[in-house]
Amino acid sequence: MDFLSLFNEKFKKRTLYNGSQYTLDYQTKELVLSLEFHQTLLKNKGKWGGFKKIFATNLGDILNVDTFSSPFAAFCKLFNLTLPMLDDKYVYAGKVLEPKVLDAVENKIKFPVQRLNDVAEYDYFKDNPQFGGIPDGFIKEKNFVVEIKTTNVKNYQNWVKFSPPIKYIKQTQLYAYLMNATKFSIVGLFLEDEDYEHPELLNISKRHLKNFDFSLNITQAKDDIQKALDWYEKYTSLGKSPKWNEMLDADFLEFVACHNEEEWKNLFLKWAYEGKVSLHDE
């Protein structure tokens, strides 16, 4: 395909814009929901058209666990204002390699690993009104949650020396708590740069594959849950976001600043020329 065809295929329309459903207050660095939109979100909280519940993948951002956390982006996700995937190669690699990693885990421990993606379309905890998500695997015989993470090999030494990123630990511990599991494991597959080009061809036995096991800390999990619920109640009631970080949230701020489809398309085109958007013919 030519550039224009690839661009049109990748470009995603949106329904929420600055000046319509929300405005940006550059003095306070807050996104402010319009009164009508805010009332609609509150009225339908937990349902279609309302504030979404908290998903475990966003827990680290909500708790602001590290310098890469964005409570601002986490708030916006509650009403589906989300930056589209600009470069999908990392997500694609994870999706393709996750089954291979789960097979490797199964072969090592000699117990079956239930693939929870097979039994939950988008939310394994759909009956929970407050929290959601889909753990990658569950070992029933050991009451053990498994979460797979693919990352660059340059992170290997840091993971081994200091443990996986705290946001991954918080995410997986929440899964364990919600499932009444006693233990959980984050299994890291560490990839070379070239692996992202054709991950479906990768023999994972040629790469570092390491499990990081944890016991459920019930006190900590309950504390995380309460803090997240307090945060959720505060900002959904206010109809205002946490303050944004101009450096960390730079791309997302450009996205939410758009007033209409023309501005959004021009921004997406700029990103495509800058190489931020992966335009490639499958």
The main sheet orders its strands as: 4-6-7-8-9
Number of helices: 10
CATH class value of the largest domain: Alpha Beta
N-C termini distance:
9 Å
| Annotation, overall tally of beta strands | 9
Radius of gyration, in Å, reads: 20 Å
Structural class: alpha/beta
Order of helices and strands: HEEHEHHHEEEEHHEEHHH
Could you describe the largest sheet, including whether it forms a barrel? 5 strands, mixed
* Shape, per Cα inertia axes: globular
Q: Quick check: average pLDDT?
A: 94
InterPro entries: PDDEXK-like_dom_sf (IPR011604), Restrct_endonuc-II-like (IPR011335), YqaJ_viral_recombinase (IPR019080)
Keywords: Plasmid
Pfam families: YqaJ
Domain YqaJ viral recombinase: 86-177
Structure description:
With 282 residues, this protein is α/β, with parallel strands linked by helices. It has two domains: 18-84 and 225-257, no CATH class; 89-216, Lambda Exonuclease, Chain A (Alpha-Beta Complex). It is built from ten helices and nine strands. It has helices at 3-10, 35-43, 59-63, 71-77, 89-109, 156-162, 166-178, 218-238, 250-256, 261-274; strands at 22-25, 30-33, 54-55, 114-115, 131-132, 137-139, 144-152, 183-191, 208-215. The strands form three sheets. A five-stranded mixed beta sheet has the order 4-6-7-8-9. A two-stranded antiparallel sheet has the order 1-2. Strands 3-5 form a two-stranded parallel ribbon. Strand 1 and strand 2 form a beta hairpin. Helix 7 (166-178) crosses helix 8. The longest helix is centred in the middle third of the chain and has 21 residues, at 89-109. The chain is globular.
